[in-house]
Amino acid sequence: MPLLRSTLLAAFAGIFLGLSAAPHEVPFGPVLFAPLFGVALGLAPSFDTVKQGVRHGLLVGLAAGAACNALVLYWVVGLMQDFARFPWIAALLVGVLLWAGQAGPMMFAGAVAGGLRARGVPLAVGVPVALTVGFAFVWQLFPWHPAVGMLPFLPWVQAADLAGQSLLDALLFAGGTLLCAVFDTPLGRAPRTRRARMGMVLGAALCLGLPAVYGAIRLPEVRAARAAAPTVQVGVVQPNVGIFEKHDRRYFRMQIDVLRRQTREVEAAGAEVVIWPETAYPYGFARGASTDRNGPFAVLRDGVRGPVLVGTATYGDGCETWNSVLALQADGRVTGQSDKVELLYFGERVPLWEVLPPLQWAFECPGVYPGEAPGVLNLGGADIGVLNCYEDVLDHYGRAVVQEHPDYLVNVTNDAWFGDSSEPVLHHMVARMRSIETRRDLVRAVNTGVSGHIAATGENLVLTETFVPATFVTTVAKLGAAEGTIGRTVYVRIGRAFEWLCLALLLGLVVWARRSRPEPNKGVSESPQTGSSDSGRATEEAVAKGV
């Protein structure tokens, strides 16, 4: 029964966290997730061995992670039915496997915290550190951080420009856990002295309050920097081409006609540069092309003046295909090319194709080839950092692009694959963190939406609906290296330093636990043992006071 209660509470914690993501955006889920997760771990009987603690922690992490990702990534089942032609039961199986795989960070955290608990480390200490490290380092096909759920509280997330999302994760986990640890719960016994309890309350208040104070100061600074910076008028076209029509050559002429018409509209409205979504140009360009295509295949035709940032496939020899963005000048010259570096495995590329002959027999080509380096293109009088498709959900890649000193960021995406689901709004929500971390405006051109303009504060300045044709022209701040702008953020300078610090702290806890005498951590409901129980309680209180 305790194991069942523990698993069910973990699943509830995961669902509560998932509800903080778009389109639900239920508040406080990220704050309460860690204490609920810790209580779920603590509901299990005490463990005499580390192996038992790890095993139970894995189960708790799997329950929380799978429930959370099933809620957020429910659309995977429909994706498999539509494009892999899987029957419903097979599509559901793929979904379950993905949701379980996405649970990796929570399974890691549960296993580590459970193992540490068996060696005497309080859950109130092990859970926040292990969760922070798990979300920072454990691989996910669709990476995300719980801190994204705090975007409705815009001042609170501004501290992402200091050390990234992991800093915010750590503060959420620590603050919520400290509040819970003030009371006797399965998470652990509360400190017996008033001073220790007040210390925990103060620690929680600092964890949850300091980011809000920082944001209240930082937001006006960034807004002032945007107001003082030079600007460029950027036009975005959202052609709304369905995924099946997009790859059907019979519809290519229709697609290019829509793109040209929308481009003329935004140019007439004052756009100095126009952005076409990912692979929007249907005919493709030869690798290394230096000019626009000719005749009916040209981009600059039927009244389109340019310049245009063109999302297109580029083709080399044989199987060689790249997902590219071209800088097409008004005079027809192609002056730059940015290739997608971070490919979506299983979607764009067959993993391990180069080293496993059976895969080479099964698939003639490995898929899309990756680019060599982040791309910055000069177009319309500005240096544009390019984030192709899901590269804008990868914090490390956004940082790598901004290290090349672009004036603003552009994301080109085709989310038509996901149909009428919550994925486009979730994608946009996660992308907002790139603007805060790097302090660059981000303009998103998405085939079927959501397209938009995200300010360097993380605010939505323009937002389109999904599955409708749309265009807009927006004033984008050029927050590059020019005088009077905010320059590079601390996060862009130091990168993952905070994450490595958290990993070192976790390793320190493991070393300390291994050297200490292993004792089972008793839950609140258990009767104290004779003999060493007083000293064990004293040790636990001493650790709690130092939290």
Question: Which fold name corresponds to the CATH topology of the largest domain?
Answer: Nitrilase/N-carbamoyl-D-aminoacid amidohydrolase
Rg from alpha-carbon coordinates: 26 Å
CATH superfamily of the largest domain, by name, is Carbon-nitrogen hydrolase
Strand content: 5-15%
Question: Can you name the CATH architecture of the largest domain?
Answer: 4-Layer Sandwich
Helix segment tally: 18
How does this structure look, described?
The strands form two sheets. Strands 1, 2, 3, 4, 5, 6 and 13 form a seven-stranded mixed sheet that branches. The chain has a six-stranded mixed sheet with strand order 7-8-9-10-11-12, covered by helices on one side. It has 18 helices and 13 strands. Helix 1 runs parallel beside helix 3 and helix 2 packs across helix 9. Strand 11 and strand 12 form a beta hairpin. The radius of gyration is 26 Å and the shape is globular. It has two domains: 253 residues, no CATH class; 254 residues, Nitrilase/N-carbamoyl-D-aminoacid amidohydrolase. The longest helix has 35 residues. By secondary structure, the chain is of the alpha/beta class.
